[in-house]
Automatic annotation (TrEMBL), chain A:
Subunit annotation: Component of the ER membrane protein complex (EMC). EMC8 and EMC9 are mutually exclusive subunits of the EMC complex.
GO terms under cellular component: EMC complex
Pfam family, one: UPF0172
Name the UniProt record assigns to this protein: ER membrane protein complex subunit 8
Signal peptide boundaries: none
PANTHER family xrefs: ER MEMBRANE PROTEIN COMPLEX (PTHR12941), ER MEMBRANE PROTEIN COMPLEX SUBUNIT 8 (PTHR12941:SF13)
Family of this protein: Belongs to the EMC8/EMC9 family.
Domain MPN as annotated: residue spans: 3-144
Superkingdom of origin organism: Eukaryota
UniProtKB/TrEMBL annotation, chain B:
Protein name, entry field: ER membrane protein complex subunit 2
Naturally occurring in which organism (per UniProt): Nothobranchius furzeri (Turquoise killifish)
Annotated TPR repeat ranges: 167-200
Membrane-crossing residue ranges in chain numbering: none
Claim: Endoplasmic reticulum is one of the keywords in the record: yes
Length: 204, 270
């Protein structure tokens, strides 16, 4: 089942990447929990309505990741969401392959959501104009993570996503983006990013 | 990763001094604070620094040279090669034979991904002065930028054999090991840092995280002890608090852990 990204999810992913250009960053993709269980679910895309930026810098340590997964899982249950995927932007510009950290976290997510995907950001194509989608989506097939072609269909509305992301990058909104690391530094920082979400909504 | 674009600011955009109602002295002091904190807020440094240099260079006195250096490095981070070159040229004029400026020349080449040329500059510095730590560290950074983590680790280990007191290097090495998932060796580096900085709660807390990640009964106990220690040093360290909580939870799943040990550690922290 392929995933689809809303403007808000795509935009916050890129803002997180842009906020820490010298670090690796990662985060979780959130989808709405569907009430009906379709037996023949193939072909119906999973819509990732939001993302939660997690860490920047050192991604390979376990304790804070576990804290984040636990807290975000609880938040999801309260809001009828589910953790549906994982995104990561590597430290180096030309490196956009999922590494061990990505695979481990995605495996954890897959335990609760079998169609979890890994979304890698292609740093080398990150521009302010966002003329093309710069994510690479990986699905789990036969024990391996395989790269799938990203089309306009991978987005709920690509032209809206492009317009909003570009506007927020130009306006340097990433300075106000809060990730889980920022939250751990000061608990008042809200990793749900209500301010950014409102900016996205205003631009829709 | 640096920004792939270099868009020009809008013509009518207000200057920093207008936007924030600050004078040149406040801008200069802000830059000094950022230097002392070693913060990597390159976009802000470029905004403030560029205006300071272009409008108030004559008032800065001897500070202007260190500000040129700071702004140059920030400009490289922001893909502003125009600004970086301007700063570099001023520094070259003032300090023609300086190793410090040569290193900046090398850094600009690194930013342009001309690694071979950059290495030549650093090798020239090292021939002249084999104890120049900055040039050696830049060479290691090039290896890291090229994705040659294994070689970077080797070179950094050799460097540390000679320069055992270089804390920045120990920390860099611990990060490289963590990225390679070699948690044992990362822990060793953090142990070195904790020995020389026993009051630094951040090193304690990061050590505890590494131990937790390593897993296993002994490492979990150690991780709880060091999270507690971090909390003792700074009771606002939330990572240490969460880590202690997570570690205590996990230890309960190990049947052979004595409940008393768990209780002792937690009592120590509070």
């Amino acid at each position: 089942m392929p995933i689809q990204l809303t403007s808000q999810a795509y935009c916050k992913m890129l803002l997180h990447t842009a906020k820490y250009p010298h670090c690796a960053v990662n985060g979780l993709l959130i989808a709405e929990k569907s009430k009906e269980k379709k037996k023949d679910g193939h072909g119906v895309p999973v819509l990732c309505v939001d993302c939660v930026p997690l860490f920047h810098g050192t991604l390979a340590l376990a304790p804070m990741l576990e804290v984040a997964l636990t807290l975000i899982d609880t938040w999801c249950k309260e809001n009828n969401y589910i953790i549906a995927g994982y995104y990561q932007a590597n430290e180096r510009k030309k490196d956009s392959k999922p590494n061990q950290v990505a695979e481990k976290v995605a495996a954890r997510i897959t335990e609760n959501f079998s169609e979890a995907a890994i979304v890698m950001v292609d740093n080398s194509r990150l521009t302010v104009s966002c003329s093309e989608p710069i994510v690479v989506i990986y699905d789990h097939h036969e024990n391996k993570w395989r790269n799938r072609e990203v089309t306009m269909g991978s987005f709920e509305d690509w032209s809206e996503a492009q317009k909003i992301t570009s506007a927020l990058l130009v306006g340097r909104s990433y300075e106000n983006l809060i990730d889980f690391d920022n939250h751990l530094d000061d608990l008042r920082n809200d990793w749900t990013n209500p301010v950014i979400n409102k900016s996205v909504l205003d631009l829709c | 990763m640096t920004y792939a674009c270099s868009h020009c600011p809008l013509e009518n955009m207000a200057s920093v001094s207008e936007l924030y109602d600050v004078g040149w002295e406040e801008m200069r002091d802000k830059l000094r604070k950022w230097r002392e904190d070693n913060s990597r807020n390159s976009e802000q440094i470029v905004d403030v620094g560029e205006e300071l240099i272009s409008d108030h260079a004559s008032k800065l006195g001897d500070d202007v040279w260190i500000i040129y250096e700071q702004v140059m490095i920030a400009a490289l981070d922001c893909s502003r090669d125009d600004l970086a070159l301007t700063c570099l040229q001023e520094l070259r004029k003032q300090f023609p034979d300086s190793h410090r400026v040569k290193r900046l020349t090398g850094m600009r080449l690194e930013a342009l991904e001309r690694y071979d040329e950059a290495n030549k500059h650093y090798d020239a510095i090292l021939e002249d002065d084999p104890t120049n730590t900055a040039a050696r560290k830049r060479k290691i950074s090039i290896l890291k930028a090229q994705g040659k983590n294994g070689e970077a680790i080797r070179e950094l280990n050799e460097y540390l054999e000679q320069f055992v007191g270089d804390q920045e290097a120990w920390h860099e090495l611990s990060e490289l090991y963590i990225n390679e998932h070699d948690y044992g060796k990362a822990a060793f580096c953090l142990e070195e840092l904790m020995m020389t900085n026993p009051h630094n709660h951040l090193y304690c807390e990061q050590y505890a995280e590494v131990k937790y990640t390593q897993g296993g009964l002994e490492n979990l106990e150690l991780s709880r002890k060091y999270f507690s220690q971090a909390l003792r040093l700074n009771n606002r360290n939330m990572r240490a608090l969460f880590g202690l909580y997570m570690g205590s939870g996990r230890s309960k799943t190990f049947a052979s852990v004595s409940p008393q040990a768990g209780l002792d550690t937690e009592q120590q922290a509070f």
